[in-house]
Amino acid sequence: MSSIGIYGSQGRMGLAIQDILASEGVRYAGGADASDDPVPVAQAADALVDFSSPAALESHLAAARAAGTPIVIGTTGINAQHHALIDDAARDIAVLQTGNTSLGVVLLARLVREAAARLGPDWDIEIVEAHHRHKLDAPSGTALMLGEAAAAGREVALGEVRVADRAGLSGARAEGTIGFASIRGGSIVGDHHVIFAGAGERIELAHLAQERAIFARGAVKAALWLAKQPAGRYTMDAVLGL
Ligand SMILES: NC(=O)C1=CN([C@@H]2O[C@H](COP(=O)(O)OP(=O)(O)OC[C@H]3O[C@@H](n4cnc5c(N)ncnc54)[C@H](OP(=O)(O)O)[C@@H]3O)[C@@H](O)[C@H]2O)C=CC1
Ligand SMILES: O=C(O)C1=N[C@H](C(=O)O)C[C@H](O)C1
């Protein structure tokens, strides 16, 4: 039986993953949280999942690398420096980083890329996400992932067209930009709408998460798949065979 260790084990996602391990036929190798040493769990597990904090990413990657244990990074709010750390670790171990582990969102990103490629820049792209009141980062990792998909469809770099703040006298919308808006409230698990607004018509592609178990199942599936891969950086598309 394969075993999985969890960084962020006592958080919302950590507990959701622990809830489903037995039914997925997986052994729990233990977890680590803010005040714990990440090394023992890395040594005990066949694969790790990280749903904790960007501040912990460097030490979690170092522990996984030292133990030679593959790791799924689900933590969001990560920046270019974090991505460089992930690329570096992926020279020695298998690492999968994703803003969303659900099958539905991975497929949605495909559809967004396709729509963005077929609709010209006169179709404005806006991404609206809604999450629970406890979420720390914005835009969500998923919104950024969908933005990357839209930008890839248009063959532009997201960093050059991204607009995340329209407070104040922001002026008319610049053609070709991709806008982001974030809503926070109550217990919303995670909603994402990608709006393609044309002249006189609009297309909306959306994913509505109704329970955290969808992310937990995807994370476990990814970890079991990753445990069999050689060193390298992977995405959920590969896990799901898309
Ligand atoms: N990719 C995906 O599909 C999904 C990603 N997420 C992302 O996962 C992350 C966690 O979300 P969620 O479970 O809701 O958050 P929670 O705040 O509920 O849990 C975070 C957990 O991480 C631990 N933690 C915080 N800081 C550190 C640290 N420095 N070192 C080790 N552990 C730490 C906390 O431990 P302590 O309590 O001791 O501080 C806590 O157990 C977020 O970034 C979120 O956006 C969430 C859902 C799906
Ligand atoms: O913090 C959350 O809860 C979630 N975070 C991820 C994100 O930032 O996109 C995934 C999911 O939407 C839930």
From TrEMBL:
UniProt keyword terms in alphabetical order: Amino-acid biosynthesis, Cytoplasm, Diaminopimelate biosynthesis, Lysine biosynthesis, NAD, NADP, Oxidoreductase
Identify which residues the record assigns to the active site: H131, K135
Q: Which Pfam families match?
A: DapB_C, DapB_N
Enzyme kind, highest EC tier = oxidoreductase
- Entry GO CC: cytosol
Q: Where, per UniProt, does this protein localize?
A: Cytoplasm
**Biological process GO terms, please?**
diaminopimelate biosynthetic process; lysine biosynthetic process via diaminopimelate
Question: What InterPro entries does the database record attribute to this sequence?
Answer: DapB_C, DapB_N, DapB_N_CS, DHDPR_bac, NAD(P)-bd_dom_sf
The source's domain of life comes to Bacteria
Q: Which GO terms describe its molecular function?
A: 4-hydroxy-tetrahydrodipicolinate reductase; NAD binding; NADP binding; oxidoreductase activity, acting on CH or CH2 groups, NAD or NADP as acceptor
**Positions annotated to bind NAD(+):** G8, S9, Q10, G11, R12, M13, G74, T75, T76, T98, G99, N100, T101
* This protein's record includes keyword Hydrolase: no
Q: Which family does it belong to?
A: Belongs to the DapB family.
Q: What is this protein called?
A: 4-hydroxy-tetrahydrodipicolinate reductase
Source species of the chain: Sphingomonas tagetis
The gene behind this protein is: dapB
